[in-house]
Amino acid sequence: xxxxxxxxxxxxxxxxxxxxxxxxxxxxxxxxxxxxxxxxxxxxxxxxxxxxxxxxxxxxxxxxxxxxxxxxxxxxxxxxxxxxxxxxxxxxxxxxxxxxxxxxxxxxxxxxxxxxxxxxxxxxxxxxxxxxxxxxxxxxxxxxxxxxxxxxxxxxxxxxxxxxxxxxxxxxxxxxxxxxxxxxxxxxxxxxxxxxxxxxxxxxxxxxxx
Length: 210
Hints:
Layout lengths: L2 H30 L7 E3 L5 E3 L5 E2 L2 E2 L2 E8 L7 E7 L4 E9 L10 H15 L4 E11 L7 E15 L2 E14 L2 E10 L3 H10 L9
Antiparallel strand pairs: 1-2, 2-3, 4-5, 5-6, 6-7, 7-11, 8-9, 9-10, 10-11
């Protein structure tokens, strides 16, 4: 092999290595430049961590993409994180908030599911509440340690994607280590159940609140 060929091979290898390093640096800088919501932190893979509860919100939960973060109190203990799915369309919101109320008393799970349903009924006065069903999932690495909660289902007409549509909405509520974990999953009628099932059972893989 002549000197000229060796030179070009060496040049191409250097260019490839430089390009890889540049890509890695850009990705790291992009992660560092993300705006960190107050009361949260990013881990090294871009998951959003709620500092008070330790709950981890991945960029993607199932096929849903993480979106807006909302806080409901000054201490940033009562929060929600929005997840959206474009096709088929669906919206999911994960809520984390303390089980202790402002008076210092713990709220029973049975009472909180009533509060959840009251809120939904307030937002959708014409909605139809199908009912509440006890549900159990694993929230730890030990599959034998499970947490019991409630599953509530609703039908109503609401604005979705700028149009009035028949919607199904499911609420899952669990209690663990002094925190309520609530999921609201809404999509055009008949499509929500699979999304709700997949998202809640994604907890089994410890991607959220392990």
